[in-house]
Amino acid sequence: MAESNSDVKTNDIFSKAYDFTKADEIKEKGLYPYFKPLQATDGTTVQIDGREVIMAGSNNYLGLTNDPRVIEAAREVIKTYGTGCTGSRYLNGTLDLHLELEEKLAEFMRKDACVLFSTGYQTNEGSIQTIAGRRDVIFSDKDNHACIVSGTLVSNAKTMRYQHNDLEQLEKLLQRADREAGKIIVSDGVFSMSGTIAKVDELVKLKNEHDARLYLDDAHAIGVVGEGGRGSASTYGLMDEVDLISGTFSKSFASLGGFLVGDYEVIEYIRHNSPAHIFSASMPPANVATVLKALEILQEETWRLDRLEEISDYMRNSLRDMGFNVWSSQTPIIPVVIGEMIDCFEFWKGLFEAGVYVNAVVPPGVPRGQSLVRTSYMATHTDDHLNRILEAFRKVGIEQGIIDQNGHSLLENE
Strand order in 244-248's β-sheet? Predict the structure, then answer.
């Protein structure tokens, strides 16, 4: 029988769990926005609580998760390979499909070699902790994704974090670091909350000046920005200057898993030494086939990238013209800053009731007082979808005192 809260001792390791009441408090107010079960989806619209709403919070950037060709590719390989690999890549879990995908991704990303991981999170956590050791220093942007932070924490390397996009501070940290230490700069290529692209040109300049290496996490960049969808470095024409680039399959590639590309020797070292690679079951056949087909479609149907950019510009400019604060977004990730947490939850609920699903992001995901709704868009959104989303934002924004009728923000901190 479970103990009541009053019976829990303060030194009980579970005390923090019994003391956690915030989620229940938000649920009681009818404002809880998380773990909403989708009952059906065609990608751009979803069924939630028995009603259809427009999905404006997915990372399905190319709109391929429901593409019939992708679904058929997954179905077909199950007939040959079954539903799983039952082991790690290191032992019995390597299929010819894995090798084919690694070869094609290395070619697409114009790097020597590629290694697959079972999730995007494992890709960064497993690669960073493997490549950086106790004699090395990691320089990490404070807005980097949690999987990068985790990788730095479990490595034996010294980690020096710099303020988001503050490359003057990064330069000072590089100057202070031990000259004999191995050095690697790690940054998101596209930051997942702000939708901004890293200053890759300046990162390259600093890494060359200080004899460091550069690692970019392009989870939200590959299949989204750059020449042919090759990511953040390609927007600057600097892919050759970036040593390691990681990506995920859970976004533009409509699947699950992740990958890292770089020099052959470095990739082989990670392949043979990363615990996340060696001790995790490999990507299931259907997931691999899905990525192969999505990669093929990405390269053949370049209109998807053009449409995604067109949509991003339209939504960003329209939301800004209404008076919303969208930070400095440059991609299909467009945040709308609301302010206080409860206000954000109320705004989220208003949008949901108006037929639009977005993501509510509150501290510690963002700084206190900067809670936001994160919107993100797909190449398959229609003009009608977009205008209905904008109509909902205008209606709820005015009703809740975020903006006025004339396109001005009413937030005190604006």
Answer: 113-117, 258-262, 244-248, 213-217, 182-188, 136-141, 158-162
Q: Which helix (H) or strand (E) holds 360?
A: strand 359-361
The pTM (predicted TM-score) of the whole model is 0.95
Run of H or E including 39: strand 38-41
Instruction: Give kind and range of the element (H or E) at residue 140.
Output: strand 136-141
Which parts of the chain have pLDDT scores under 70? 1-8, 413-414
Q: Domains of the chain by range and CATH? A: 24-55+302-400 (3.90.1150.10), 68-300 (3.40.640.10)
Per-residue confidence (pLDDT) for residue 413, from 0 to 100:
58
**Measured between alpha carbons, how far is 393 from 114 in angstroms, rounded to an integer?**
42
pLDDT of 11 reads: 87
pLDDT given for residue 120 in this prediction: 97
Instruction: Confirm if 340 and 204 have CB atoms less than 8 A apart.
Output: no
- For residue 1, the model assigns a pLDDT of 42
d(CA 225, CA 295): 14
Instruction: Single out the residue of 258, 15, 307 nearest to residue 124, CA to CA.
Output: 258
- Give 364's contacts (C-beta < 8 A, 6+ positions apart): none
pLDDT in tens, 17-56: 999 999 999 999 999 999 999 999 999 999 999 999 999 9
User: Residues 6 or more apart from 71 whose CB is under 8 A from it?
Assistant: none
d(CA 369, CA 365) in angstroms, rounded, equals: 11
Peptide linkage before 363 cis (omega within 30 of 0): no
pLDDT recorded at residue 6: 55
Whole-number Å distance between alpha carbons of 254 and 64: 6
The residues that are catalytic are: 192, 220, 251
The first and second tokens of residue 111, run together, are 């790097």
The Cα–Cα gap between 410 and 414 comes to 8
Cβ distance 248 to 257 under 8 Å? Answer: yes
